[in-house]
Amino acid sequence: MSRLQVVSGKGGTGKTTVAAALALALATEGKRTLLVEVEGRQGIAQLFETEALPYEERKIAVSSGGGEVFALAIDAERALLDYLQMFYKLGGAGRALKKLGAIDFATTIAPGVRDVLLTGKACEAVRRRTKQGSYAYDYVIMDAPPTGRITRFLNVNDEVAGLAKFGPIHNQAQAVMRVLKSPQTAVHLVTLLEEMPVQETADGVAELRAADLPVGKVIVNMVRPHILDEEAVRSAAGDRRGEIAEALAAAGVSGASELVTPLLEQAADHAQRVELEREQRAALNQLDLPSYELPLLSEGVDLAGLYQLARELRKQGTGS
Amino acid sequence: MTLDASVTPLEVDSLIDDPATRIIVCCGSGGVGKTTTAAALGVRAAERGRRVVVLTIDPARRLAQSLGIDSLDNTPRRVKGIAPSGGAASGAAASGGDRPEGELHAMMLDMKRTFDEIVETHADPERARAILENPFYQSLSAGFAGTQEYMAMEKLGQLRARDEWDLIVVDTPPSRSALDFLDAPKRLGSFLDGKLIKLLAAPARMGGRAGMKFLNVGMSMMTGTLGKLLGSQLLRDVQTFVAAMDTMFGGFRTRADATYRLLQAPGTAFLVVAAPERDALREAAYFVERLAAEEMPLAGLVLNRVHGSGADRLSAERALTAAEILASELAQESGSEDASEPAGSAPENESKNLDDGGIVDQGGGKTDVREATDASPEAPTVDHTPAHPPAHTPEPDHRPVDSGTPATARPGTADDHSTEQLTAGLLRLHAERMQVLAREQRTRDRFTALHPEVAVAQVAALPGDVHDLAGLRAIGDQLATGTTPPVEAV
């Protein structure tokens, strides 16, 4: 399994939740995973019900079987200063650059520098080794930008390597691209069984493939149970209203006759949704990618829900 | 679901009918229906007599289609099929019958094009060409994080300046923090005023004047460092770019400031869009606070995808209990494999599980998720919630269909059987719906408790996506009235 797992998806599909569940699921039997946040929203801290994450790797969860999940919220400015320090021992010059507004410039406006720093930091964590020579983290899971931006985000180093044709930035950019385009990396796309997210997933897969970036799995999130299908609803709405009212009354529901119509309306909505989901599932199957499915947790995702999703991912083969 | 008396309803029609309203900005986190809301507002305002342009950032092809346009680009296109609503909008009485005929135009932000246009407008042709061909510029303009936000605001300023429309509806970028568009003009401004720019632009400006020697030494040290970092060729590109842009920077700064002031002006109204989910509403609350801090005028909250139920007097617990009763009757009567349903005899446990949060893992019966879906896209999804105990039998969903088609006119006993199954299914669906309702209510209450002053409009969840003007119109109706139109008879 790839050691860098990048999780993207359309806004609102729950990619942060999926990334967190994946980090938990991969942290089995003494394994260490690092969950990386790049968009500065502190979504991970909220999910794990801890205070805001600083710019440092800290343990945020222990998985069943003794695995550990670490988390890091990458701050582009700090990452840049780190990077300057690491490559050029530029402590003082870094401060001078900051005074000049160069750091602001680099992390917010300059093309792609921010994205270079974020991807660079994640790749550094992938490659990092302990003193004993083993990998510092078994897996690095990135809560990445949304599908619409993911290819550009991951590919930024290619672009930078083209802009800066020589020098340390060029070399660093190429080193990052080597990790991202190798089987060491898998880019997963989270989607819902709805038209827009599925369309965006299909577009995202095409873009990633065109850029030679390794597409991992489609993760269908918030899958709801199908209770009745269209035919059943049609049948019920026809000449069987009376029978249904009787059955409701027999089951102890008061005022049953007035409930039949609203209940059937809900069933019609449901049936329509089932039908739409079927179409979307077919569209996803066309992508010819392996997939995971995660259930909708009716109470929303809290810490217990996160562990439940992690179990679900493990059942479906994550980490094995 | 109707709004409580404690929540101020958002008067959408007063907002869009007011000629003083010139800009409506829809903001919110990704995936909450911002773009659709912006389009629906545009359609409604146009049909109520405004000359509207909708500026969308999100390249949603289907939105273009729903507006009857093949594709949206950087030029506003007129939307056909906008019909003056006249009496159709129930709240239209105020302005009488002789309202002017409205128009709707729509466009999608093309970042690179917008940036190019600025350059072309503000630099002489030769200089413009130098800029447009600069590799550094090409990367910058093609849209890395940050540029989009700035360009959206730039475009808004341009549209406003053209004065062809009396209402501009803006859909904001799906920003990482959803607020970047507020910061973008300032950030760019402070960068342009910064020493770095002066430093980078210096060689071109100073030439070789001897008096500047001292400064030159400091500068060459600095550019030396930058050169080491960026590579000397990139630094040259940047310097050429900065030098070429030098004359335009003042204009950038001025416009960025003007756009920011425009957003604070009385003619602007912000609508925060959210779905009744924890994360989206948390983001919305943050937005409300931030807008207040920036003195940006907030009109209210649009809550999309709200679920309702015409049978809400029947609680989830009672619906489930009734479903269990029906299931256990079935088990006793039929003696079929249904008899093995374990949950049928324990309705109390079911409602207890529900109270515990509805995520109780019942074990077994759930391991075949992938198999079921991989094997066939047609297969019904395996159940994930305890609200539906028959998941333990394979494909329970199909049973009512097999025996329940009216055309087959089965004998009485078979029909009774399937009616009970069908009714149990209806009840379980209802229980699921009521759970959703309760959750949405709780998240919404949390928001309104924190921000009771924020007016709210609600839009009901639709089973599918919006595909046409009629769909956008229906959403507009809901935005204005806050009620769900009656569901068509099945």
Descriptive report:
The complex is a heterodimer of chains A (320) and B (490). Chain A has an eight-stranded mixed β-sheet with strand order 3-4-2-5-1-6-7-8, with helices on both faces. In chain A, a hairpin with a 5-residue loop joins strand 3 and strand 4. With 320 residues, chain A is an alpha/beta fold. In chain A, helix 3 (76-88) crosses helix 6 (113-127), helix 7 (147-163) packs parallel to helix 9 and helix 9 (195-210) packs parallel to helix 12 (256-285). Chain A folds into two domains: 4-224 and 296-315, P-loop containing nucleotide triphosphate hydrolases (Rossmann fold, 3-Layer(aba) Sandwich); 226-288. Chain A contains 13 helices and eight strands. The relative contact order of chain A is 0.15. Chain B is elongated and about 90 Å long. Chain B folds into two domains: 12-196 and 251-307 and 461-481, 3-Layer(aba) Sandwich (Rossmann fold); 316-438, no CATH class. Chain B contains 18 helices and eight strands. In chain B, helix 12 (278-293) links the parallel strand 6 and strand 7 (298-306). Chain B is of the alpha/beta class and 490 residues long. In chain B, helix 7 (147-162) crosses helix 8. In chain B, 47% of the residues are buried. Chain B has an eight-stranded mixed β-sheet with strand order 3-4-2-5-1-6-7-8, sandwiched between helices. Chain B has helices at residues 12-17, 34-47, 61-66, 111-122, 125-133, 135-141, 147-162, 180-193, 195-206, 213-230, 232-264, 278-293, 316-334, 347-355, 369-375, 399-404, 412-450, 469-481, and strands spanning 23-27, 51-56, 77-78, 103-108, 167-171, 268-274, 298-306, 456-460.
Spatial ordering of strands, largest sheet of chain B: 3-4-2-5-1-6-7-8
Overall 3D geometry of chain A?
elongated
Distance between the termini of chain A: 8 Å
- What is the strand arrangement across the widest sheet of chain A? 3-4-2-5-1-6-7-8
Q: According to CATH, what is the class of the largest domain in chain B?
A: Alpha Beta
The tally of domains of chain A stands at 2
Instruction: Look up the CATH topology of the largest domain in chain B.
Output: Rossmann fold
SS content category of chain A: alpha/beta
Measured distance between first and last alpha carbons of chain B: 21 Å
Q: Please summarize the sheet with the most strands of chain A.
A: 8 strands, mixed
Task: Please state roughly what percent of the residues of chain B sit in beta strands, choosing from under 5%, 5-15%, 15-25%, 25-35%, 35-45% or over 45%.
Answer: 5-15%
Largest interface by Cβ-Cβ < 8 Å: A-B, 113 and 111 residues
Helices of chain B, by number, come to: 18
Main sheet: strands, sense, barrel of chain B: 8 strands, mixed
Rg for CA atoms of chain A: 24 Å
- Which fold does the CATH topology of the largest domain in chain A refer to? Rossmann fold
Give the DSSP E fraction of chain A (strand runs of 2 or more residues): 15-25%
Can you tell me the CATH superfamily of the largest domain in chain A? P-loop containing nucleotide triphosphate hydrolases
Helix vs. strand class of chain B: alpha/beta
Oligomer: heterodimer
